[in-house]
Write a structure and sequence with these properties.
This protein is an alpha/beta fold. It has one domain: Aconitase, domain 4. Helix content is about 30%, strand content about 15%. A 7-stranded mixed sheet has the order 4-3-2-1-5-6-7. Strand 3, helix 4 and strand 4 form a beta-alpha-beta unit. The longest helix is centred in the last third of the chain and has 13 residues. The two termini are about 30 Å apart.
């Protein structure tokens, strides 16, 4: 695999309005139903993100669903209820959210496997204190400024909240590479190290 094939979109900062799904326990099957997992390409999965929730039985968009509302258009930050991304492991879940146009998910609790898959694919999973998340859920459409390097989320009133993120994952997000892409970028240094060791 080439280094180009292992790149993702760099995420140094996300400035956007929010769209909110206050439901708790939104699992990966709700994010992308299992019948859409047959593809190995990411393009087009945004159309089926939250498919069974987002569309009516006749296939038309449900205007009451948060992501279908006009004010949600171009929002890149999803604020969700507790335990987002629970359920079975499927890399298609962050793929679908990214293809839909989201760049970050904020919740008081994000399932570990989903968080790992998200970080590997350039989607920023942010865990904040429940009181802060509740405030965001009560104010959909609020403008947030997420600084990945500083690991902070800034509200319009100037308050900033730190969020935990693994240092290596942060580096990959900032550089726009996945784990393999990061290793491939170090190939010259790795080769030099091996040559020096073999020369001893």
């Amino acid at each position: 695999m080439s280094a180009e094939a292992s790149t993702t979109q760099a995420v140094p900062r996300v400035r956007s309005r929010t769209v909110c799904l206050p439901d708790a326990n939104i699992d990966t099957d709700r994010i992308i139903p299992a019948r859409f997992l047959t593809t190995t390409t990411r393009t087009g999965l945004g159309k089926v993100a939250f498919n069974d929730w987002r569309y009516r039985e006749d296939g038309t968009p449900d205007p009451e669903f948060a992501l279908n509302r006009p004010e949600a258009q171009d929002a890149q930050i999803l604020v969700a209820g507790r335990n987002f991304g629970c359920g079975s492991s499927r890399e298609h879940a962050p793929w679908a959210l990214l293809d839909f146009g989201l760049r970050a998910v904020i919740s008081a609790e994000i399932a570990d496997i989903f968080r790992s898959n998200a970080l590997k694919n350039g989607l920023l999973p942010i865990v904040l204190d429940a009181a802060v998340v509740d405030e965001l859920l009560e104010n959909p459409g609020i403008e947030l400024d997420i600084d990945v390097a500083a690991s902070t989320v800034a509200l319009p009133d100037g308050r900033r909240f730190a969020f935990p993120i693994d240092g290596f994952a942060r580096t990959c997000l900032l550089e726009g590479v996945d784990q393999l892409g990061y290793l491939l970028k170090q190939s010259s240094a790795i080769q030099s190290f091996e040559e020096q060791r073999n020369a001893r």
